[in-house]
User: Which sequence fits this backbone?
């Protein structure tokens, strides 16, 4: 089966850096994705890691360690508009099944 | 741009009714997914399909079925709606290069079962 754990809430100051962790248990693991969801909106894709290491996309970076079954999303130079829920999602288990974590609600404060 | 269209944004049904939620994509993507989203529980996978007439159970398939007669359309069926199926339902397709794990979501269908 698949399960993913991430913190339920994180608060950070505008302009700061925040890291959202995700640990997973996924059989037949292919890779780890991250999604952002604003209140009332649909999730939108941020990044994907299939190999160990850091992937950088602008202010957002994502890291994966397959040996530790662990990944994180790093958000730099936080802006108020980054206040949203962030989900990690693993792909695996055959037929490209995608399973989501329970989400981390990020609040950015002035 | 990838477009995923869910037929109804809001539905109100009564216990025991049969409910159909439709999802249509405008591209030729194989993989389609149905999730439900509830506060504190994240997105939970109900069913997914990797080709026409092919389906796989997700993590919470009980009380649901699906149909994929054509590649562009993936339907979620609640045979006999119950109040615990009140939720936001999200359809998604997997796009991009094989194995990138990128899902595109529809706007969601908020179902209330009375």
Assistant:
């Amino acid at each position: 089966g698949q399960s993913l754990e991430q913190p339920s809430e994180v608060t950070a100051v505008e302009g700061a850096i925040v890291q959202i962790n995700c640990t997973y248990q996924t059989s037949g693991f292919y890779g780890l994705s991250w999604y952002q969801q604003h209140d009332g909106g649909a999730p939108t894709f941020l990044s994907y890691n299939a190999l160990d290491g850091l992937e950088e996309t602008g202010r957002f970076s994502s890291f994966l360690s397959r040996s530790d079954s662990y990944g994180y999303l790093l958000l730099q130079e936080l802006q108020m508009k980054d206040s949203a829920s962030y989900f990690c999602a693993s792909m695996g288990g055959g037929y490209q099944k995608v399973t989501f974590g329970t989400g981390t609600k990020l609040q950015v404060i002035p | 741009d990838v477009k995923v269209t869910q037929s109804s944004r809001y539905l109100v049904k009564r216990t025991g009714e049969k409910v159909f939620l439709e999802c249509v994509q405008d591209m030729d993507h194989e993989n389609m997914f149905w999730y439900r989203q509830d506060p504190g529980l994240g997105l939970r996978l109900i069913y997914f399909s990797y080709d026409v007439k092919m389906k796989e159970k997700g993590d919470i398939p009980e009380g649901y079925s699906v149909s994929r007669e054509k590649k562009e359309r993936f339907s979620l069926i609640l045979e006999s709606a119950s109040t615990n199926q009140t939720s936001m339902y999200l359809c998604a397709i997997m796009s991009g290069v094989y194995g990138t794990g990128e899902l595109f979501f529809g706007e969601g269908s908020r179902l209330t079962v009375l």
